[in-house]
Amino acid sequence: MIDPRAVVDPKAQLDEQVSIGPYSIIGPQVRIGKGTRIGPHVVITGQTTLGQYNEVFQFASLGEAPQDVSYQGEPTRLQLGDHNVVRESVTISRGTQRGGGLTRLGDHNFIMAYVHIAHDCLIGNHCIFSNAASLAGHVHIEDHAILGGFTLVHQYCRIGAHAFTSMGAALNRDLPPYTLASGNYARAIGINKLGLKRRGFSAASIQALHRAFKYLVRTHDRTRGFEAVQALQQQYPEVLHFVTFIRQSQRGIVRTGRRHSES
After folding, report:
1. DSSP secondary-structure letter at 99?
2. Could you report the per-residue pLDDT of 177-227, keeping only the tens digit for each?
3. Identified catalytic residue from 41, 83, 116, 119
4. Pick the catalytic residue: 51, 137, 160, 225?
5. What residues contact residue 43 under an 8 Å CB cut-off, 6+ apart?
6. What is the secondary structure of 168-198 as a DSSP string?
7. Active site annotation includes 137
8. Active-site choice (68, 107, 120, 174)
9. Which class in CATH covers the domain with range 7-138?
10. Distance between CA 247 and CA 45 in Å, rounded?
11. How many CB atoms lie under 10 A from the CB of residue 163?
């Protein structure tokens, strides 16, 4: 299942059910799991591990040295889980020593063409990155997040679960879970109601998140906002996650860009 025109280092560890297309190059420290398909003209190098049943399309580059001037050739890693789709010309760098040494993607992610995922990014499960979305280093993204085409994410930003960015959004702050963001620089425009409804969230949970968004994102008095959502976060786990994410933010969160009262 390995095309004779591919170049596979004999030290690479490949399951018997891995397929590799013509002119692809697989380095000596690469491990690839059962059922994974590597298309033509793909380069996989460094300490890179791919789990089971991934699909990598042509011209992708996985596990190359990070684009970081501090990197001096230290042994760092890239890890992909299972059932990920990596489309044409995607670039995913391995980590840096000062960033923890690991870039990681979970399971069931759909990474569209020309996406760049930089060093030390940590990506959850079931995420969708549309064409040409780009993550700078050290970005953390939780499960089920969706990035619109040409989204740009500043280094060290966090994006919460079930968040959604529109085409061309540029984030330089954290985007709370369940939230929609749009614009350059991105502004929060509300809760991702349609996406949450499609994923089976109850109407009551969505309404509770809408109220939490009002108290904590649209307000300039967050102290009172945290007090106002005490009962909601005890009743709804989604609101607790929303509140916890905001409390733990180091960069500050994406705001609406307008002044609102708490009424």
Report:
1. G
2. 999 999 988 999 999 999 999 999 999 999 999 999 999 998 778 889 999
3. 119
4. 137
5. 24, 25, 60, 61, 62, 64
6. T-EESSBB-TTEEEETBTTEEEEE-HHHHHH
7. yes
8. 120
9. mainly beta
10. 38
11. 29
CA dihedral 27, 33, 39, 42 (to 10 degrees): -20
Q: N- to C-terminal Cα distance for the chain?
A: 64
Q: How many residues does the chain have?
A: 263
Q: Predicted confidence band at 262 (pLDDT cuts at 50, 70, 90)?
A: very low
Structure-token pair, residue 173: 């702050």
Among the listed residues 259, 254, 127, 257, the one whose alpha carbon sits nearest the alpha carbon of residue 179:
254
Structure confidence by residue, pLDDT tens digits, 133-152: 999 999 999 999 999 999 99
Amino acid occupying residue 66: P
User: What ranges do the domains of the chain cover?
Assistant: 7-138, 195-248
Sequence letter at residue 35: G
- Known active-site residue 162: no
Is the pTM for the entire model greater than 0.85?
Answer: yes
- b/e code 113-146 from CB counts within 10 Å (16+ = b): bbbbbbbbbbbbbbbbbbbbbbbbbbbbbbbbbb
Residue carrying the six token digits 């050739």? 73
**Position of tokens 């190059």?**
25
- Joined tokens for residue 231: 């009962």
Beta bridge partners of 92: 62, 117
> Which of 130, 124, 128 lies closest to 142, judged by CA?
124
Q: Give the strand order in the sheet containing 102-105.
A: 13-14, 31-32, 47-50, 77-80, 102-105, 122-123, 140-141, 158-159
| Catalytic residue status for 51 | no
